[in-house]
Amino acid sequence: MSSTATAPADDPARLLRVEPAPHWHGGGTLSSATWTWIIAAAVPAVAGLARNGAPVLAVLAVTTATALLAEPILARLLSAGLGTGPRSDAQALLTGLLVALTLPAGALQAGWTIPVTAASVAVLARLVLGGYGNYLWNPVAVGRVVVELLFADRLRGLSAEGSVARELAALGMGVACSTSAPDGPRALTELVRDAFPPWHATLWGTEGGEATAELIGGSAVAVMAAGLLLAWRGQIDLGAVASALMAALVAAVALPIRPGGQTFWFPGLALHEGLPVGCAYVLYHLTAGELLLVVWLLQGDSVSRPLRSRGRRWFGAGLGALIIVLRLYGLAATAGYWALLAMNTVVPFIDRATRRRVYGTSAL
User: Does the reported pTM lie above 0.90?
Assistant: First the structure.
């Protein structure tokens, strides 16, 4: 449709072009949105730098440089036609920052191939899966799980056993962990007292073990600050975040653990000698590891999430619950990224189920 009443038909500068729905309502541009995301991603990156210093700076430098170099090279090789202008560079910079947040602080100590591969695969995944605005799976999550598949032994070798995520996974699977007590409440007490760092430390990103194994984007406080900035700028859906956190909380409270091989349901309600050890167990689930990074930042990617607010709430609920399920029963280090990819896969079905219908019809 075009407005031609006051403009010549051959004057493209004065034609009103209306594209198919959905429309983006707002005064921002793609460039401003991208730079908002870059600033937000820099918040947990700076927090990680403050905690661990030079190793984090090195990982950030490698992932961002790799993404900036890989973008034009891979685009040319794949004939993607993305160019190397400001739009492409800003997206590549954002990809490099987000990839770094998913890696441990000592990733370079385990081999330079880890951050290089993660950033390269993330860029490649975006280009191969459809390019800007078309990919189904979150490219950053793809890069992280590929690195875990290729270099799992190196990444595990960064620290001794004992991180919160590993201990929670061992507890859920009923395998060897820092407690052998068959009684659920007693096992939780031993973990919280003897194996886990102080809970407030997980708010700042310290999971236990050595500093090299700490997640660069593991500061709950910094991630939430970044998420609130994005929410203020209208870049993420707080309803989806709330749904994810609520679903994760319910799953952590209810799903069984197997201390000493004995199945114990509703560990989040456990009391031991009058102490709410179950509450502490749930708080560790919510603040340790990659859960908040995935829930607040990565799920907010506007391309790989559902189109409508109701669908985004469904998406968030599924994501939060699935993270806890995967963490407890087999994927301690990358549960959040696998859960995100799984939910990305069902986005077309969510969009179909939540589409708006015209009154009196069965179609859009």
Answer: no
